Amino acid sequence: MTGTAETSAGAGRVRDFHQILIWPLQVMVADGKAESARHWRQLTENGGSAVWRELDDEFTADPRDFQERHYREFVAFLPHVQRFLYGERAHGSAGYGESPIRVFRRSDIRKARLWTRPGASPFELEIVHCDLYFFYDVDVVILAVEVRGADLDLVTCQDVMHRFGRAYPGGWTPDGEGANCMARVEWIDAAGAVVSVSDYERREKYLASVCSHQVATIASHWDYVLRPMVMNQSEEKGALRYRQLEYYRMPQMAYLALDNPRAVSRVDQMRLAFAGPPGGDAPLAQAFLGDFESKHAYDRFWDPGREGWTNTRVLCCAHAVVAIGDANSALFTDPERGFLSQFRHQLFYVALIAHFHRAALLMLSDRLVTAMSRLDIRDRDTVSRFRRDVRLNHEIFLRFTHRYYFSEVSDQALLRDLFRMLNGHLGTGKVYAELREEIHDMSHYLETDMLRRQAVTLLRLTVVTLFSLIGNITTSFLGMNLFNHADLSTLERTGIFLSVFFPAAALTMYAIMKSQRLYLFLDSVADPKVGLLRKADALIDVWRDKPHVNR
Of 339, 401, 346, 398, nearest to 86 (Cα)? Predict the structure, then answer.
């Protein structure tokens, strides 16, 4: 790489283009809600949502209706991942049960009309899927939107990858347009009507949100897609509320079937790998991209110098998984048995699991921060709530670890290696280790505090017991036969009993109140190195307003 312009003119056009946006969000839970989160119920109860409908799984009642594509998808994963994705129907002994994933889809938005820049000609992409993924017992929902286009030029595809999946603008150009965003996005329904339009150019809207709520609001067309969910800082009423977990740039997957993928320049492959904007020069510094192939390219099926070879290259970074291949090869483009089917299903689930893992860990970390921010050690109510929050988060973390957290998802080379590569770029293992250490520290603090409180309680009880010996000896005097109380009347015996009971109870309560100071007095009495004067002084300290310290 020289850093000068490199052209991909010989690559031809992109005959088939798919982009899948995978946007994790945190579902906000009100205090006092059930611990086992079933947030999808908000879309099904009380009449449900008008646009979101829960998807039935592919496992039909009649096996003759079960498609081979679904079978290939199922067997691609290891058994524990199969149970996570699809559940398990077992007879006899208890099995895994239903999958903890619930998927909802809306079908009212059919197309996206896009303008990459002001004054540019619009073009349309088909909305293939628009889904919400909910996960049992985890306050995370993932929006997955798949769009498709045909016969596009490479520059247009690069612009879509760079600009489309933006929740809000990162800034504005001197002309007032959102920086690095689409100039305009329109959602179009089945009748061809525009149902929602982007508003990246409304600078005052985004500034007001950050100024008033310290939270960036999202663009109007993405807000429309997520309805009836509403942002947490919004004043609108909504039982299902969310907030962002990560960067405003949505993670994505992209599939490009080109006339000649071997002619795509190294610089353009870098842009595709990082979902960067089109242009002439390398997107980043030469030194930074010196190890591009080893870190960001999966080349098991990529050999440009080999004739008759199905050249397929998978590029990967933390926010993008991109596949490029030959549009003339059925092995790459077949939607049922080819790589396209594998990309849209197996590879999609690999990316979904990887981003879900990171989102769930960030959600738990956020809950720990919230628990700490509410803690005031001078307020017993906040201390009790802190203990409850830590125990609850520890339980959720354990359930997440054993139910959802996988180090391996498949024995198929592509899926196995891509999952490892994506996790490495996301840093999921490091986030998991840090979160586990934080939860361990909090749990250790609770255990230490509990032991300290138990020690103080035992100390007080020991002191009270020691001093109550005097009362026990005294009151036991009544049980001796020195006095003949048996001949007294019931009223007289009751009076004697109460005359002993109330002073003894008062003395016990008083001993509890002074137990800390009485302990110091007993400690000084037991210490042979302490003189009589200091022992007497320790006794007097029991009744001093301000006892002497280290006297």
Answer: 346
Q: pLDDT-based confidence at 1, cuts 50/70/90?
A: very low
Element (H, E) at 387: helix 380-403
Q: Name 291's Cβ contacts closer than 8 Å, sequence gap at least 6.
A: none
Which residues, at least 6 apart from 64, have a Cβ–Cβ distance to it below 8 Å? Answer: none
* Phi then psi dihedrals of residue 285, to 5 deg: -70, 150
Q: Decide: helix, strand or coil at residue 105.
A: strand
Between the alpha carbon of residue 68 and those of residues 75, 194, 312, the distances in Å are 11, 37, 23
Report the alpha-carbon angle 500-503-507, nearest 5.
Answer: 130
Residue found under tokens 């540019």: 120
The answer, yes or no, to whether residue 342 has pLDDT greater than 90, is: yes
Nearest to 404 by CA among 80, 89, 105, 119: 80
At CA 111, angle to CA 108 and CA 112, rounded to 5?
120
In 287-338, where does DSSP find H-type helix? 292-296, 330-333
Assign 281 to helix, strand or coil. Answer: coil
Residues in the chain: 551
Ranked by mean pLDDT, the top range of 37-41, 154-158, 172-176, 397-401 is 154-158
Distance of alpha carbon 44 from alpha carbon 48, whole angstroms:
4
